[in-house]
Amino acid sequence: MNPVPDLRAYLRSLDAETLAELLHAEAQRDSRLRRELAQRAAAASKVGPALDMLQRLLESGTQADLTPLARRMVDGLDGATAAERRRAVALYARACAAHPPAPDQLADWILATTFHRPDWPRIELADFTTALGSTGLTRIRSTVDALLAGRPGPRRDIARRLAEQVAEVTGDVDTLLTILATKPPTPEVNLRIIRVLRSAGRHGEAIAHAARTMVHRERPRGGALALRCAEFRRNPGPTSYSALREAAAERWPEVRATVLAVEGPAEAIPAYRLYVEELIEQKDPSCYREAARALKELRALHRRVDTAEEFTSYLAELLETHKRKTRLLVEVRNARIAIPKAVTHRKAATMSA
Questions:
Q1: Cα separations (Å) of 69 from 65, 82, 260?
Q2: Rounded distance between C-alpha atoms, residue 99 and residue 103, angstroms
Q3: Which top-level group of life is the source organism from (predicted)?
Q4: Residue 37: how many CB atoms within 10 A of its CB?
Q5: CA 187 – CA 256 distance, rounded (Å)
Q6: I need a labelling partner for 133 at 20 to 30 A (CA). Which of 98, 193, 221, 266 fits?
Q7: Pairwise CA distance, residues 332 & 316, whole Å
Q8: HSE (CB half, 13 Å, CA atoms) of 321?
Q9: Is 0.70 topped by the overall pTM?
């Protein structure tokens, strides 16, 4: 008996043009598919300009309450792409921060979207914390607790993710650590645990956890890796960073996470800058998104050592260097990092030229 071919894998292997031709040809034969594709195309042609308009209004500093408009846009995104939905939710969060709706209604919308729209991007409670307030967060927590006490299943898995976010935004460190401890000990999870401990001022526990994640698999490499870590901590820079990465080999994500997490604010700044630049050089949208998240961490470090102006100068120079990477600029904006005026003015001058 011949094996059944993996059709999904085959389709994923096709380039966009070939896949488009196949879909177009099939749509000519299937009227239902043709109507669905036509509806999606029509929706896509309208969503972008509408979101552009909403963003301009939010950035104009208007005192008008744009929250109802943003909500209608979010709720009317049937057929929109994942990127458009992410952008719409981010704009809705900005509108809610400026003019919060009723906390219980906002909480109900977040719960309904999270549990009943699995194809939607994940909603980050941190973006809505101010608008939710204690009333909205309590409503979400009570729903989550009830689901966690019920039967296992997809809804319970979603509730567990929401519980993690609730613990994080409310500063419930012990609950958050308990949740993280139940996850597989990946480098990403270990890094989060270290960051949570450090943010809570539990530096001894953070260092102890970091040390446990650095258990050496091979003694010769372990010695070299320990040496490179020590060299980087003494003199953080491109040379020591590259040497550390080479010594870490396949363990680099884990080692990088540990190095970035256990340093003090001033000592960690060079490491974060190198990490950001390393991500940008990958020229990948997901790496740009991670670079924006790292920039938020870097901004926080600069604020802790009272060098916020230095971060602004660094960011302006970074964005000027990579000014052709428009996707990077989008991700920086989406991360709610203020774009330096010098960069904004240069962009405006370029557009008007």
A1: 8, 20, 41
A2: 11
A3: Bacteria
A4: 16
A5: 9
A6: 193
A7: 12
A8: 10
A9: no
